[in-house]
Each structure stands twice: as C-alpha cells, then as structure tokens.
Amino acid sequence: MFKPSDWVWVHLRKDKFPSQRKSKLQARDRPFQVLEHINENTYKIDLSLDYGVSSTFNVIDLSFCDEGTFDSNPKAN
Fold it and tell me: What is the CA 12 to chain-centroid distance, rounded?
C-alpha cells in the first residue's frame, strides 16, 4: 500500500498519544514519511522523538497524504 518515501498521516489514537490528542476535533499535526515496509500490516515511520512511542505503525493507523497539500520543507521559505 505505502512505499518508503511516501508521506502519510498518522492517526493519533487517544490511548497511544494522550498528550498530543486531546480532542477528535483537534487539527492534524503534520504528515510523516514512511521509512520502511516491514510486513503487509506494519510500517516504520519517521516519527519525531517528541512523541515518545515506537515508530512502527499498523496500516490501519495510516492514511496517504497528497504531497501537494503540505509543505514538506517549511524551513526552506
């Protein structure tokens, strides 16, 4: 489904990310890049250390992000 270098949205489940996800109406943080396809259901994501969780995610927690909908290098501006 995803391949390395794809950009994905990570579903921040309240039980896994309590400090980052306070409300289901909260805006999404930012997309993350796929680093590795581990198996048919698991991907390794380039996740910031600020989240304090494993960087491997089940495919159900990921959704494809169109690169045209965000600036992948905000510091370049």
Answer: 8
Query: What pTM, to 2 d.p., does this model score?
Result: 0.70
Spell out the domain ranges in the chain. Answer: 7-67
Nearby residues of 59 by Cβ (< 8 Å), 6 or more positions away: 1, 2, 40, 41, 42, 43
Reading the chain (77 residues) residue by residue, the pLDDT tens digits are 899 999 999 887 766 666 555 555 555 567 899 999 999 999 999 987 777 778 899 999 999 988 666 665 554 44
Cα separation of 23 and 64, whole Å?
Answer: 22
The 3-state DSSP class for residue 76 equals helix
CA 30 centroid distance within chain: 7
Q: For residue 25, give the DSSP letter.
A: T
List the structure tokens of 20.
Answer: 């980052």
